[in-house]
Amino acid sequence: MNFRAFAAAALLCALALPAAAQAPRPDQLAFRAIYEEMVEIDSSPATGSCTRVVAAAAKRLTDAGYPQADVQLVVPPNAPEDGNVVATLRGTSARAPAVLLLAHIDVVNANRADWERDPFTLVEENGFFYGRGAIDDKAMAAVFLDLMIRLKAENFRPRRTLKMALTCGEETSNRVNGVDYLLKNHRDLIQAGFAINEGAGGTLSPDGKRVALEIQSGEKVHQVMTLTVTNPGGHSSRPRTDNAITQLSAALGRIGAHRFPVELNPVTRGFFERMAPLTPGDMGAAMAALARNPADTAAAEKLATDASYNAMMRTTCVVTQVEGGHAANALPQRAMATLSCRVLQGYTPESVKAELERVAADPDVKVEIVRRRDGSQAPALTRAIMGPVERAAATLWPGTPIIPIMLPGATDGRFLNTAGIPTYGLSGMFAVPGETNPHGLNEKIRVRSLYEGRDFLDAVVRDYARAR
After folding, report:
1. For a disulfide at 161, which of 27, 91, 218, 323, Cβ 3.0-4.6 Å?
2. At residue 189, does pLDDT exceed 50?
3. C-alpha span between 178 and 184 (Å, rounded)
4. What does DSSP assign to residue 198?
């Protein structure tokens, strides 16, 4: 029995057993060693090194038989700790576009004093793996590395070339972003017909039952704006009718009360349509109504009471920082606010700037774009993409609905999509909403969810690799 059949059979037999009672398979133990090594190499910007992680990954790949030419370590000049690795398993067809498996291996800082457990020691406890990066994103990085090693050991001959890129810099702006750097300097290494990335998992009910498997297509674009008011100022004993802080506050109040229009694309419309029958009560009814008619104001108002649904429906701009004044006894000469805008795909920063100026309704409030990022349209969920997902899900989790989602946040997929490489978020790793706590304290993932996600991605990637 090959690995794929063995994994599917073992998983189906284990589904009825409590998570704590499931003994790891031998192949899962080998994978666990890779995962443990990744989590335990600190790759945070404050105290760690991405280069150490990718060097360890490169050694495992060459030990597995990959020639050095197919394992490329890429370390940006002047950023010795921001290394990346790209591995290639060459396909038999020179014409079939490659498949790129993307995962970032940098993590958010973690202070040991704040954590219940050492964040850079993989701890398995009560059915969970704990550690910084346990879910974001070393889970997928370890799965892809393990898969590339196993495919080599099996002498697997894909029709499509498989590429794996483990990259640095997704989490923090003070590092070199590996995907951006590779696109600009070594695009040939990661050129592909499409890519699989983080961005979607699966939803469990509070009692651990599967609600939906997610596939992510598209994400909002993060634009940073500032609002600034300047004033001659003066002595605080002689107040002016125009006050920089007061003017800025009034403008922020108007912007805070403003809602950008509701706009659904095929992905978000599909999300609400498919989630409606899975969501009880008025919220499910509102989802169905909005999917039928995006102009249904009452349905949109109901959904807007949930921050996540509201973020999926419209562009949002929220104030995140404010500064103003220079002395306790002086009128403010300057007041400034920073806005984080998450913009629906298809809109330019200039169009958002114009809307903010309109809503602020004060010519003294100067709106500026301080961080501009280009966006692209969400890639289509074609049969070529969905077929392997549906087949694997039907084998492992019969009857579980597949839900398309758009991310209100951002991943490295924004660089690939903009560069013309369609990128989809897909992991098959299920969780109760909010339980994994990525970026937060005691980050974790269910042991069973990680192992099941590994089996799912194994099946999907093999299917893609064989496709014409």
Report:
1. 91
2. yes
3. 10
4. S
Q: Contact, 324 vs 331, CB < 8 A?
A: no
- Band the pLDDT of 1: cuts 50, 70, 90: very low
Tokens 């084998």 correspond to 395
User: How many CA atoms does the CB half-sphere of 428 hold within 13 Å?
Assistant: 27
Instruction: Decide if 251 contacts 368 (C-beta within 8 A).
Output: no
Supply the pLDDT for residue 6: 43
Burial 124-141 (b: 16+ CB within 10 A, else e): eeeebbbbbbbbbbbbbb
| Per-residue DSSP letter, 412 | T
Question: Which tokens go with 397?
Answer: 């989790």
DSSP 190: H
Strand 202-204 to strand 402-407: parallel, antiparallel, or no bridges (unpaired)? unpaired
Write out pLDDT tens, residues 289-335: 999 999 999 999 999 999 999 999 999 999 999 999 999 999 999 99
Interatomic CA distance for residues 127 and 452, integer angstroms: 13
Looking at residue 466, its pLDDT comes to 96
Contact partners, residue 466, CB within 8 Å, separation at least 6: 158, 159, 160
Q: Is the pTM of this model over 0.85?
A: yes
Closest Cα to residue 403, out of 223, 218, 216, 219? 216
As a whole number of Å, the CA-based R_g of the chain is 24
Instruction: Report the C-alpha gap between 50 and 81 in whole angstroms.
Output: 6
Structure-token pair, residue 292: 């039928």
Structure tokens at 214: 């997610």
300: nearest Cα among 329, 250, 357, 262: 262
Fold topology of 220-371: Alpha-Beta Plaits (3.30.70)
What values do phi and psi take at 234, rounded to 5?
Answer: 145, -170
CA distance 415 to 400: 31
Q: What is the CATH class of 3-199+411-466?
A: alpha beta
Q: In the Cβ-directed half-sphere of 390, how many Cα atoms lie within 13 Å?
A: 8
Q: Do the beta carbons of residue 323 and residue 339 sit within 8 Å?
A: no
